[in-house]
Amino acid sequence: MTWYDSFLQQLVDGLVLGSFYALVALGYTMVFGVIKLLNFAHGDLYMTGAFAGFGGLSLVSGFLGAGWLGIFVAMLLAMLAVGCLGVVIERVAYHPMLGAPRLSILITALAVSLVLQNAALALTGGQYTAFSTDLGFGGISLGNLFLSYNQIVLVAAAAVLMIALELFVSKTLYGRAMRAVSIDKDMCRMMGINVSAVIAVTFFIGSGLAAAAGTMAGAYYGSIWYFMGFLIGLKAFTAAVIGGIGSITGAMLGGLILGLLESFGTHIPFIGSEWKDVFTFSILILVLVFKPTGLLGKSEVERM
Amino acid sequence: MIQTIDQTDAPAVGSRPGKVRLGIRDVEAFYGQIQALRGVSLDVHEGEIVTLLGSNGAGKSTTLKTISGLVRVQRGEVQLEGESIARLAAHEIARRGVVHVPEGRRILRGLTVKENLELGAFTVKDSGLRRQRLDEVYALFPILHERRHQDGSLLSGGQQQMLAMGRALMHGPSVMLLDEPSMGLAPKLVTDIMRIIKRLNEAGTTILLVEQNARLGLRLAHYAYVIENGEIRMQGAAAELRQDESIVKAYLGVGE
Known about the structure:
By secondary structure, chain A is mostly helical. Chain A is built from eleven helices and four strands. The longest helix of chain A is centred in the N-terminal third of the chain and has 33 residues, at 3-35.
């Protein structure tokens, strides 16, 4: 394997990893946008999404099979279910806290995270669950570079979801209202926008995207467990910070950049894959020190 | 006829044309423990410009916020065309046509002029009507058309005021609540804005105008109320109040 092939292989691995990070980071950044909350339960929605996708696949695999179609339908079911769960969480846990100090709602988010994790722990007994599919291991060989179909479909699916979101937010009136809510809620109310409904829709979309990522990750890696959301939650947070928290394009960019950095960074001599997480969170610290607003974020002017 | 009143439940005086579009009765509102409005009553008739005058902290902006639902009505009644809106959520009140152009304009930062305007018509479901209103607003404020692709928050103060009013017009308001549209503007621009308000009114928009500059408010309005310490102290036809410098000075302390 030449240096060049190895470079391309890292690029592909980085894009796959980055797609997961980007999808999860989007939910982080959207929720932060509308209610200024770092939703630390967001990684657990990804985990819940993986289990919902698993459940969905068991439901539909009987007649749709466990191939692309079955997984696609399972993913849609998981997005719907976890999207609704996200809305319920917002209503029950966060909405009553919106007037409270920021720290209270942050602690609430940690509590929600614990509830989801422990619910999954109780239901699965902490065991890994095999997420078996009929996807196989086919792919395309380009010289020494191997692209599996799974990787291609996964990156493409993530891209479609992200482009759809970007179009929704920038082109539709409702998407604009969502941006407007993140800027000035009272002004939105004065224009007749139902701010609570916009917040609910934001949670639905953000949670749905996390569930899509969870299902795809389950199908891709082949196993899921109750703790799988913890690390990716933190990494998606890192990705959102890299891109500029609150910025949707930034979250996509930050996710991809983080995926690529991890993929390449762990191949720098003396930095083996066991240093991967150290590497990631060092980047988080560097960004926070040198460019706290991230790549595309704007500095927030606190209004009196 | 000018009336100085102690108790605020007095009915509107003088002969005013049209039906009452917006009526508020004995409204009390609080910020925490502090009572900001101590029983405010006023009427805005169809087709009128009514001005609410008063010094800083008298309760002018609070009155508007109470009408538009941003501040809760603790006691009292707010009615739009005879129907109570006092207990509705702010966005519901806006949907019924009470459109508040707030102090400081509150242009949505990061959104273009056009996007700001389109959001003003968020409740208008008919996209043809939205487009038609957009054309009307552009005709009224050609500068907004010229700048339509720029970030709205980067416009000058006067242009932002036009954008804020244009955004309200997009909604097709039944009553427009204007909070200090002249604030922070150069005298020439103040005159422009005042002319525009006059024109909007002549085109049929009913307006409740809050002004710190009493002379300005009285020049534009048909009818005026003076608020002090959260209570209406005086009301009358603007033309009559305008004549009586001493009363205006006593209550508003304006020398200009």
